[in-house]
């Protein structure tokens, strides 16, 4: 029971060993971290992940988390030396999920130690012995174990791929030289490897240099950003201090104006109070005299009248009291006007200075972009605003000025697409081509991209086509694996395309299509203005007819691409 339990729960069903770094997946089964990771890595292209034990499928790759309990138990079993009665990969050489198996083992396959390039098979130590002992195999070339040896067989002639066609940039067999590759520039695979090895060395040196340059630029940019932060902080502190000083200055001015208004108000008030008091006294005296005159006027005593007449009828002496002339519009209008002028001048000055400051701040460059030539021997800083903008082309002669010769990239081609004519023609065949499995290759749709990355300018190209096909452009980041819409030209936000068939045209972007009317033409012209965000398709005949025009904000370089129904040929324009 103990052995059964140990075998069931503490051994990995992939490598048949005691669990190493055990992880449990959602269905409950446990595996070694490396085993299940390697097993599921091979399923990344399909997007469907299967439990090797119960065959339950997961549409999303489960996250693997270490199981602390199983790890502890497995360690105890390992230290105790308990025999779990399972085969050990290290002990008998059983091939694990990431190993190359022996092609001649029956039943449980052992790990291969060598592969034969003549036999196109892999051998374990036991089955490799004839290659060392028999004279028949003496000339065979043995190399370290290789997987997928079937890729080294010509799919058309079932012969070993031993030659390389430089014209079509692909590996071929001897029979290919007398058929579709007749007359092409053909060398041995070994010779081409030697040439490519030199280029590889140059590429490695170039990439290393580029990496060093980028690291240096990154460090400089980080230093610049730090300096920018410090400079901005200092500018903010100093600006804040100066504005506070200006505010204090304005506050002092406000205080002085308020004080002056108060002093003038008090002086005028005191003067007015003194005048009021004098006027009130005079009014009292005048009223008394008025009463006396009234009584004198009414008296019947002639002697009394005459004795008081001179006193009462003598004009009143105003003395020093000035004549009061009241100003009904009395106010501090001049003060208000002066303050208003100061406010207006400050606002005007502030607006002008703010505009000047904003302009000077915006003109501070953090970095400049550079265009590097292919041979990396010169650098040119491009200022877009300083370049005159040419008018958009109208005639075919105008478009041809921007012609660029494109070449198909075999590393992106679907395996049923045969590329020829110096990488300018592609035909869909029923036979699988001997292409390597590259991350760039479309594995489900008959599509191919060009090698050229188009960016920062105007470009024009023409193609001839037959059978239903699509023509367009895509970012390098477009998906290549699987059957989803993310891989199809025009069916995602990373590509734009025109679908052409004998029945008509339709324009596609991000799974949105628009029916396009226009004359049927076996020749299509494409105009791209990457900077302006324009992509236009034209039917080429006696004249150019605009089929559809996309307007977008292109944020990455664009790669021309094709979905092939029968054939597509990239034309040369004279």
Write a brief structural summary:
This protein folds into 5 domains: 2-86, 2-Layer Sandwich (Herpes Virus-1), CATH 3.30.40.10; 114-152, no CATH class; 192-323, no CATH class; 332-387; 391-570, Jelly Rolls, CATH 2.60.120. With 574 residues, the chain is of the alpha+beta class.
Question: What does this molecule look like?
Answer:
The protein has 574 residues and is an alpha+beta fold. The chain has five domains: 2-86, Zinc/RING finger domain, C3HC4 (zinc finger) (Herpes Virus-1), CATH 3.30.40.10; 114-152, no CATH class; 192-323, no CATH class; 332-387; 391-570, SPRY domain (Jelly Rolls, Sandwich), CATH 2.60.120.920. Helices cover 35% and strands 19% of the residues. It has nine helices and 25 strands. The chain has helices at 2-9, 33-41, 68-80, 89-92, 125-133, 189-298, 302-313, 333-362, 396-400; strands spanning 22-24, 30-32, 49-50, 57-58, 114-116, 121-123, 142-144, 163-165, 170-172, 186-188, 370-372, 379-381, 417-420, 425-428, 447-449, 458-466, 469-475, 495-501, 504-509, 512-516, 523-529, 534-540, 544-551, 558-563, 567-570. The strands form seven sheets. A seven-stranded antiparallel sheet has the order 13-14-25-16-21-22-23. The chain has a six-stranded antiparallel sheet with strand order 15-24-17-18-19-20, with no helix packed on it. Strands 6-5-7 form a three-stranded antiparallel sheet. A hairpin with a 4-residue loop joins strand 21 (523-529) and strand 22 (534-540). Helix 6 runs antiparallel to helix 7. Pfam families: PRY (PF13765), SPRY (PF00622), TRIM_CC (PF25600), zf-B_box (PF00643), zf-C3HC4_4 (PF15227). Residues 386-574 form the B30.2/SPRY domain.
